[in-house]
Amino acid sequence: MTPRIRKICGVALAALSVAVLVAGLWTGRAVRANEGSDENYASPLELLLSPDGARLYVLCQQTEEIRVLDAATHAVLKKISVGRVPRGFSLSPDGARLFVTNSWDDTLSVIDTASLAVVAIWPVGAEPSSVVEDRSAKHLFVANRISSDVAVLDAQTGAEEKRLLAGRGASYLTLSPDGSRIYATHIYPNPTRVRTELDNRTPPMSEITVIDAARAVVVDRISQPAIAGVFHLAFSADGKLGAVAEYHPKNLVPLAHLEHGGAFAYTLMLLGSDVGKPIEIPLDELDRYSSQPFAVVISPDKSRLYVTLGGSESVLVIDIPRLLRFVHAHPCPANNSFASDLAASANYIVARIPVGHNPRGLALSADGRTLYVANRLDDNISVIDTSSNLVASTVTLDGPKALSLLRQGEQTFYTARHSFQGQIGCSSCHIDSTLDAVTWDLEPDGFGRDVVDNKTLEDIKGTEPYKWNGGNPSIPVECGPRTEKYFWRSENYDDKALTALSVYIRAIPPRPNRWRLTSGEQTPAQERGQTLFERAKDKFGNPIAESNRCSYCHSGPKGTIQKSFDVGTRKSTDNTGLLDTPQLTNIALSGPYLHDASARTLEEIWTVYNPNDKHGRTNDLTKDELNDLIEYLRTR
Amino acid sequence: MKKYCLLAMLLVFASLSFAVSAATAAPQMLPQFKFDNFTTANGLPDNHVFAILVDGERIWAGTENGLALYENHTWKTFTTADGLAHRAVLSLALDKRTGDVWAGTMGGLSRISGGRIDSFTQLNSGLSNDVVYGVSVEGENVWVATAAGGCRLDLHSGQWSLYNERNTPMAEIWAYAVSAAPNKVYYAIWGSGLLEYDQKTKRWDKYDDPDGENEMVLFKDQGLIHEIVTSVSYVDNVVWVATYFGDSHYDGRYWHNFLTKDSGLPSNFTNVVKGIDAHRAWFGTDKGLAYYDGVNWAVYRSSLTDGKPEMTVRDAAGKITSVAVTTAPAHNYVLGIDFQGDDIWVATAKGLSHGIRQKQ
Asked: Is there a domain that residue B41 lies in?
């Protein structure tokens, strides 16, 4: 058997295994909607220490609870149920209340830390992901990922007073040490206003939104050029140094040859008076990357900075005095970024501590001696002795002992270990199993050819074929040889890993649709829009060819007929105009649109890129009607 | 019966006493200003200033060549390079809760938030038309007046609702201005009167000139003064309306109209009206800036004959008095008005003016 035939057989076998396993899963125990798992894993995502250091609060995303541990003995004191898919939490300044954002309920749970009971549940914006209270206990600030804003709530009643515009996918909030400012980061880049000749090769742009805590207004936006994916920000106790974890995609060059420069730089942006103007420093090392940085903490004495690396399954330790010496000793690059200097990190990284799968949240004891790390996909917490930079112990959160196939697949999805020098994992581009809102030039189509928008992975089961050109008939094909060859450049998956990965991806659920009315009814605009979506005649009474109706190509429960069509959007750099029909699931969340992201908004699909009605008959519609059509699409 | 007669007499007496006392006291009471004028010579990006907005100590000016911000005695200009939808900024509104500024331009609607500018156009959003004459923020709604009707952007849901001849009594779709409040929203429609939206009932109503579209006033105070409505200001449950042929005041029951021939209005051709409360308002005309205190009028301008600064006061009896002044707004063609405490800012066709209230 030649290697090629062996490979084909392997793929076929993997595909068969997936089919059998998935069929079994779907006929057996219902898959949990939030994480795509059939087991009730705790999935610790974030950690907090009580002000007195006696308790360790653990946000368990999949069991949807807060576990309260004795910080000394690690015994579980209480399990407190919260809402669906909790994502962020914080303590009030006096430690009396614990606030938890329930990202799929669009609510905030308020826990009394004396009784360890939920005392209030307040409605907030779409997909709340982080919360902080100001020092005066006047306002709560909540970052809403879907509505891309920061809601300002009355801290005593929970009544929403207003929402402040933040970056797209607003997710993480930090109160400055003096309590005067709140910093908001976001995981998807802001829509760029830069237009290029083909409208599809623009660098991403992100921001740190700076809010005056007393006035509750935005006072500044710190620009983060070329950044897509920004996570936790931490300050030194004196407030003079801030550091935020972020992804720096290199998407304007072909995604090829990881060994020749790579697809990502993983960096910190430093800010504050210690550094002057904000500056970006790399976390990557010469021979290994620091994939998917997430949480940051700074030791009380400002000697050390710790960063979790979700894809590299480790914690980086940075010597802050050396870091500052590096920053001040080197001429600042014109773009305020050292991201491309892989030698830079040798100046300040002093240790890389291996921990568990997909480490996320961090908590550092007040004396700086003990660092807790939430290993999300291992259901445990690494306890690190910071004097030795070694894991002193591991706290296991009770739960399933065995790894389900789904869980194995999720681990595979988030790890970067398969790629050359541990550079990227699936989740580098599919942040939190969704998308990154960035266009990429993938190698298989030829350099500079077929620049494509990164599709979301929500609810993609049953929408095959995959890839914009419909070239991959199944997830095992999409994720198997193609990924091994063109992305990882290093280690291929074995059959079991590929099967598990495929099972996981097929089980990624859609987020709740925020535009559908809870009553199941439609607004008048949605109703009118659906009529337009399904119409067979245009406004002049002329029949619309079946293949040119919205409801033909975007048919079925997920809005795809699973075939390719030429909708007139081919660019000069595209190899073909035939494109796979994308599913419509949560289409309002997955912009930009069209195969190469040239449409910034749903409107532009028709107002700019459908001059000849090839993408459905729409040019007879008035602006009101187009708005109605979009209101309907948002409910899909 | 006696009781009613007595009450009526008392009311008439009280009204007359108020009118007379106000009229006699007015010339001294009407505000006087020292006007500091800004042009391109001292930092303004363009002398054609269409709109003015005061946000505390920050002054925003919508000019023909960018959005200018005056802060700490320095002008900064935002242009299309910063993300502004178009260089010509026609209207401005402040979201007082968030501090965001909304700018209506000749090429779309821009939101200025913490230094970031996001622009909405008829191509990239549900905005009905790129020519945005007016904008007003009320709660989570941004109300927009465009050359193709009105729109509302719901900031929570992102939904755009369009209002035009198909779903409102709007005969023409040239919406010139909008003034929104939690209970009512008013649209000034150029050629189609005044449109009222009741936020509670979600119904539209329309106010027309009872004389039709002709320029004669046959029925004074019987309704809107003219169909060509250019500006509207809703305050204290009273709507002030400006047209090119006089101005109107409507309290929900009675109309009161203002013409040059029977008021202190310096010109019937009015570009903008800005109400202070139910009784007081400022008017920007092609022949100067005017203030009405409910009884008396004051006009601030450069003399139409010799160009020298002048302030005139007209009392309830029609008596006109000159007040000695040394400054006047930058130009008599007034396009925008806003207040900064006791001070006034005035957008004109040839510069921006800061009227600094003088102690009297």
From this structure: no
